[in-house]
């Protein structure tokens, strides 16, 4: 990558010409054909990549075995920085979605460059924080969807019936149906069957029927509400786990960047 391309990368935009030229000496160029796997989740990694040409998809596999795309990156973007900072295995898969040319920067070369120009530290921290926020939003969406799928998969016939009854009992349809039923009952016993009504005024049988309906409707609605409350508790717990994970990752990034700054001062 030439100096102009390097300075188009937001991570290195603040560098002057001398620093950019020095950084270029640390980079090695690699070409990847379309659909090539650059690295897989768990692979050892001590380098980050800058995209000069082409596009790269960053993805993970969730607990259900589905591929989840975390980001679609293009020219000027970078990836693989997590493993470069901590020296641990890759946390996601990287696949070339087009013929790609990538510039590789190893951990040792990055630390050497950081000692000479620490301005990249703040840019790297800002970029990592933005990515963590986007990943957090994505995980929230995935968690919500998975909870609904899990609940739908294990719902019994009685659960579905209670939900339908609760939905109907809390709607205008139920109110209008109830009013129509009362009118028909009263008209039938006062007009159509005036001489031989089956429920004479004050409609004792009607009161009995209504009391039975309300007595059965209340526990059915409570069953549906209890299931919804359990789903809300599960969603809140998963949201907490997502936030805790991102907080720990961000704390680890800050700690490692502090270590880099200390090494520079030494």
Chain-wise SSE layout:
Elements: H1 3-8, H2 17-26, E1 28-32, E2 37-39, E3 47-53, E4 56-61, E5 67-73, E6 78-79, H3 81-86, E7 93-96, E8 100-106, H4 107-116, H5 119-154, H6 157-169, H7 172-192, H8 204-265
Antiparallel strand pairs: 1-8, 2-7, 3-6, 3-8, 4-5, 4-7
The chain-level mean pLDDT equals 77
Integer count of domains: 2
H/E element string? HHEEEEEEHEEHHHHH
Number of helices: 8
Strand residue content: 15-25%
Identify the CATH homologous superfamily of the largest domain: Jelly Rolls
**Whole-angstrom Rg:** 32 Å
Quick one: overall form? Answer: rod-shaped
CATH class of the largest domain: Mainly Beta
**How are strands sequenced across the largest beta sheet?**
1-8-3-6
Structure classification: alpha+beta
Characterize the biggest β-sheet.
4 strands, antiparallel
Helix content percent band: 55-70%
Count of distinct strands? 8
CATH architecture of the largest domain: Sandwich
CATH topology of the largest domain: Jelly Rolls
Task: Give the terminus-to-terminus CA distance.
Answer: 31 Å
Please mark out the parts with pLDDT under 50 across 5 or more consecutive residues, or reply none.
none
Main attributes of the structure:
266 residues, Jelly Rolls, 2 domains, 4-stranded antiparallel sheet, 15% strand, rod-shaped
């Amino acid at each position: 990558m030439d100096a102009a391309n390097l300075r188009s990368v937001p991570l290195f935009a603040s560098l002057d010409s001398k620093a950019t030229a020095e950084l270029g000496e640390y980079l090695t160029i690699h070409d990847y054909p379309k659909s090539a796997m650059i690295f897989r989740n768990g692979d050892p990694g001590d380098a980050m990549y800058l995209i000069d040409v082409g596009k790269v998809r960053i993805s993970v596999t969730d607990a259900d075995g589905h591929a989840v795309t975390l980001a679609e990156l293009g020219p000027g973007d970078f990836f693989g920085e997590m493993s470069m900072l901590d020296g641990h295995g890759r946390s996601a898969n990287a696949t070339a979605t087009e013929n790609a040319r990538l510039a590789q920067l190893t951990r040792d070369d990055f630390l050497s460059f950081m000692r000479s120009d620490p301005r990249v530290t703040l840019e790297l921290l800002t970029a990592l924080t933005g990515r963590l926020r986007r990943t957090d939003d994505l995980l929230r969406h995935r968690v919500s969807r998975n909870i609904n799928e899990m609940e739908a998969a294990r719902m019994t016939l009685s659960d579905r019936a209670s939900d339908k009854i609760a939905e109907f009992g809390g709607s205008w349809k139920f109110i209008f149906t109830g009013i129509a039923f009362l009118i028909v009952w009263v008209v039938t016993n006062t007009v159509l069957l005036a001489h031989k009504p089956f429920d004479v005024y004050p409609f004792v049988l009607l009161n009995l029927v209504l009391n039975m309906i309300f007595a059965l409707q209340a526990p059915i609605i409570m069953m549906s509400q209890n299931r919804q409350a359990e789903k809300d508790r599960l969603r809140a717990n998963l949201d907490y786990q997502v936030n805790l994970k991102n907080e720990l990752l961000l704390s680890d990034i800050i700690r490692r960047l502090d270590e880099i700054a200390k090494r520079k001062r030494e």
